[in-house]
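Human: Can I borrow your eye for a moment on a structure tokenisation matter? Separate attempts, laid side by side, tell us more than any discussion would. Could you pick a protein and write out its sequence and tokenised fold? No explanation is needed for now; the record alone will do.

Assistant:
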Amino acid sequence: MRGSRAKLVGVSLAVAVLLGGLTPALQAGQTADSRSPAVCGPKDTPETGIQGDVPKADQQDGRAEQGYNCGLAVVGHNDLGGDPSSSLAWSGNCAYVQSRGARVVHVIDVSDPTAPRLATDLPTGGASENLHAVTNAQRAILVAARGAGAGENVNNVDVYDVRQCTAPVHLGAIKFPIAPIPNPAGPVHNVELDPSATHVYGSIPLQQADITNLADPSTWTVRNFQCEIFAQVFSQGATNSPGPANPCDVTTIPPAMAHEFEFNSSGTRMYIGGQQDFQLYDQDLKVLDMTTWPPKVISITPGPGHGIRRATIGGKPFLLNSDETAPPTTVANAVLSPASRVLGTGIPRAPAVDNAFANGCIPEAATPFAGTAQSLLTDISDEKAPVTKSQLRLAINDPANCAAQVDSQVNSTVHYNTVDDPDHTTFAMLSMKNAGLRVWDVRNPSSPAEVAYFNPGQYRTDDGSTTLDRTRMHTYYQASTGTIWLLSESGGFWVLELEPRVRTALGLPARHANNRDGRPARSADLSSPATVVAVKPLSAPLGALSYYCRW
């Protein structure tokens, strides 16, 4: 706790200096190497300045409303009727989009990538940050958290058979207890299937549900293994453990030892982690042996795991892992003027508050409270001693560009990251909020390089104000079509393609391209969704878990 408090004080002082001492007049001079090295087509609309930035001038003169792209061209688009979206899953030729507005799951048929269409809506979703699907030779399963019904003290996670992907069949609901150990954590934060699609996992706290028998939902038993893992972490002397006499005596907030989950291909290993260096409870990167129950902790390594996906590069196993930036109420209230101290009073946090904290002016060690989160490549060849090989950094997040980032107020921090193929990895796809989707060549894990990006840019909302679009969730590369499926909060569902010159640079086989010379990020037919709805923050006060960005 002493380390955590010291960190909070340091962050508060740093942000106070930042907000009070920088003006646009201090904007850093731009250098040639601050631009993205991505490979652009002649018809693309590349960034006008620093890699990952949306300059204030672009926001004011309308350039940002054209969007930005380089090496990634739009193939198809569905604006989802202006319904803000929060998470993406996939199976076959279908995308499953969790809504932030209507609280449904949109089923998008992407059989024709140039014209993705809404097939149906599912009455589920919205009670966890994500939804998840797994398709294998035996099963195709989608899970989404619906939340408690009237009089229930459970979190209902709906299970769908999606073998006919446009017509999911509801099989039943897993009833995860809201408080399996005494805590106010509420619903599961993230929900995911293992590779066999026979077990469903919920985070904060750690829980597992067995859905082997799909025909009988009454057999879908839930086991909590939070305390067992924490006990092992404490006994192994984790540097960030608070060291309680009884590690299972968690009477306030459960240790957030996993945000999302990742597995090896066979499901015998689980990789989990939380926020980087957050010292209230252990957040370190952990490798678990899933062949025993309770799972056995194999190793604990300093590093984040808010976003975590496996990769295989040059035959070696890696993790693509990252933190996030989500300023908590305590830090925000400590540095904002009294007139702006709205957090914790029932008034939602404004996006501008997040953006004031998420920049390179503050050391990355301050995440998740402040600073920027950027993805890491971690070698797990020796699962008892993982080693971080590199970080995938945007120039706008460099401390040298601090003033420019304060001026533009962009939040170019990673939230989730994904790879093209976990078994034969060529590139990584990073959802970096106001910086859009960034594609990196990771074939040399010690020296990754950005090769393409797509950023929908700025939209005008129905009241005439402007909002910078954000990409936050996992993306999907469909190798059979060579397309990337992406969600943006204001723009909707996008189908993108790697342009031929980028495929060549990545050593990928040539294939038909809809836009050989690229295409403007937002041409006339993509200039605006039907109605842009500004994403609204939570209406309730943000609690102690607010550093986890539920929405």
Summary: The mean pLDDT is 83. Helices lie at 2-21, 56-61, 226-235, 329-335, 351-357, 402-408, 500-505. DSSP finds seven helices and 31 strands in the chain.
